[in-house]
Specification:
2 copies of one chain form a homodimer. Chain A is an alpha/beta fold. Chain A folds into 2 domains: about 5-40 and about 65-315, Type I PLP-dependent aspartate aminotransferase-like (Major domain) (Aspartate Aminotransferase, domain 2, 3-Layer(aba) Sandwich); about 315-415, Alpha-Beta Complex (Aspartate Aminotransferase, domain 1). Chain A has 18 helices and 14 strands. Chain A has a 7-stranded mixed β-sheet with strand order 2-10-9-8-7-3-4, with helices on both faces. A 3-stranded antiparallel β-sheet of chain A has the order 11-14-13, with helices on one face. In chain A, strand 7 (about 185), helix 11 (about 200-210) and strand 8 (about 215-220) form a beta-alpha-beta unit. Chains A and B meet through helix 4, strand 1, helix 5, helix 6 and helix 8 of A and helix 4, strand 1, helix 5, helix 6 and helix 8 of B. Strand 1 (about 45-50) of chain A pairs parallel with strand 12 (about 375) of chain B.
Chain lengths: ~425, ~425
Amino acid sequence: MNSAEKLNDTLERHHPAAHACLSQRGRRLFFPMGIPAQAGQAKEASINATIGQLTDGAGHAMAPAAICQHLEGITPEEATLYAPQGGNKALRAAWKERIQQSEAAPTSSPFCTVGLTHGLKLVADLFVDEDTEVLLPEPGWGNYDLIFGTSCGGNIIRYPVFDGHHFRQDAMRLALSKIKTKGVLVLNFPGNPTGYTPSADELRPWLEAIRESPKPIVVVCDDAYTGFVYEEDRITQSPFHDLAGCNPEKILPVKIDGATKELVFFGARVGFVTFGATGPAADALELKMKGAARASVSSAPAISQSIVLSALQNPALDAQIDKIRNVILHRYEALKTALDTANIAYFPFNSGFFTLIPVQCDPEELRLKLLKDGIGVVSFARFNAIRIAYSSARAEDLPLLVETLSKHISVDKDPALH
Amino acid sequence: MNSAEKLNDTLERHHPAAHACLSQRGRRLFFPMGIPAQAGQAKEASINATIGQLTDGAGHAMAPAAICQHLEGITPEEATLYAPQGGNKALRAAWKERIQQSEAAPTSSPFCTVGLTHGLKLVADLFVDEDTEVLLPEPGWGNYDLIFGTSCGGNIIRYPVFDGHHFRQDAMRLALSKIKTKGVLVLNFPGNPTGYTPSADELRPWLEAIRESPKPIVVVCDDAYTGFVYEEDRITQSPFHDLAGCNPEKILPVKIDGATKELVFFGARVGFVTFGATGPAADALELKMKGAARASVSSAPAISQSIVLSALQNPALDAQIDKIRNVILHRYEALKTALDTANIAYFPFNSGFFTLIPVQCDPEELRLKLLKDGIGVVSFARFNAIRIAYSSARAEDLPLLVETLSKHISVDKDPALH
């Protein structure tokens, strides 16, 4: 049986926090015994007339040559037929192995999504409504507001990541105390737009506060920038691994990651949602996710999944990624040096793709001035800052960028911010 | 300006029906001047440090060889970098040209989605909530219920496509009269699971009723199976083209289609949403769609879009698709002959991928019996029928399928149903 009521009952028994945090939509969601489910059962049939895709009747694709001619080393079946709901099984297994490489926290099977945004949205579908406090990092990614607030109607509460130039260790306990009945907490390290990753010591009070949360919460670890950490003393594992064994009466940890940044494959749209849950609770969450995904995109792109799977199986991949990461590390160092030389204040950064520069002037005006000088940056009105994405600029261009910037801004001479 | 209020005001002035039909979420949606918008403005900058993707600083991709080695005839930039929000511009233009080939109804620019389901979901996000009647065909695709009902909370009303063995010409007027304040109507020809397309004469009373709808409605034409029509006297154009010039006080027509079935590229997840609207109304709808898409998947897969664009530009494509269509036509004829020979009653079918067989027994039991005999079909409890997808079975296997079926069912001898 797979009605919404059954799934809700299973969660209530096996994961009270997940059950308490369900949104109205989340309570309704289930995965109907519809066409994908029935087609799944008919895979071994000698005549399989279940699914509305064109095959030759023996499981082979019929895609036109105008499409297949672009494939190299993956078959038309792998690229042009539907992927299963929830994702290619071998890919899901390979990703699970990857995220458990160094620490084997108990988790569900990673659920394949259309990029990380889709993972955030499916989790929001399950857990965010008008009765949900959503705790977002400030500074934080603007799209969180659109997903959790505008689209899903949650009550946004911002918690500060920094206290001036320091990581704000007491921020989490205060933020969690503001939840009225149930909450969703987003953690994002390395952060966008901050480029910040805390040390284990800095993070510890946050983890303690989370474990002692007075209300049930879903903790979403947005691990988009996994692996891009440039300083020795920073955490290299997602907080998800610390939380995955948490009390299911209180906390449901969720890991959201994917190939977008981690494998440098932005155009694929391959993301994953993994729950810190196992057994019947994980099975029930999987079916609710399948329902939410079926109602939003149906299956995720097969071609992207097949290429990502092949890359994960390729023994050369890690060295290739390391080489790319070293290029970015070099840019990181060049930018830091240029900012220090120009005596420009910045929020602390040590990882990811960005640095965030607080400005005294109107950041949008500054952005437009820089644009006239041929330099593109992103402005954030809410936290009076501009963001430099050194992920998309050459190391040798960064001194000119900083020099131009320093001409336009009121230089903040406060050395404490460095 | 691009606040939700501005967009709502624009729609109220330029497309009152679209404005009247907005859901609560649809009213809130807008496309923030966030990172994608600011990055769009910085495209010509000599140093573009706006966007969080890895490039060499001159716009070139940095994806690892383990990924790029699978590409043939498309560049790493086309496949591995982000596609723009709303889709690749050249692809959107090429698709617009394609859908306007035979009839140039005034439309918006096709908005690229992650397959057709995503198009349906974005439209549901804009227009469906608890105060919306959603009129769905019966028999109809089960996923409509999940999208419009379970996920978006609309009030589902089913309208009958058939009256016994005939297309039900008076169904539409009756269905439209049930809308309380605003509605979404889904039309689906060729139909899933019916495999039915009406003649122009059959459809006329439906179009008349729609034009005279007592309440404002969004008419969603789900044109997934465009082109797969096997009988001469059937409509070959979507009803969208008849409705695109409709009174904007009353009706917003929407066309949903894509490469999935039409170009036989199921694994791509490339769909399109096109509105029967132009000018400021189309612009406002585009921005609301961009907001909804940004909050659900952000950009759609670039690799799929680039391959679909290349295929559309390939002069060999049409002949390749024709050849595939002829294989399916042959299966269609073989199935019809086998059913007639076995004297098995079926709902009328003439197009698409399916036929629907009404049964006297429990269709789920029948499905499981057939599965034991090595034959996979889909059962529909609600309309007591099984669906045969001849899209995925060989013509030479269909007689055995029908023979096995006829052993299991109580053969309905009513010749009127043939």
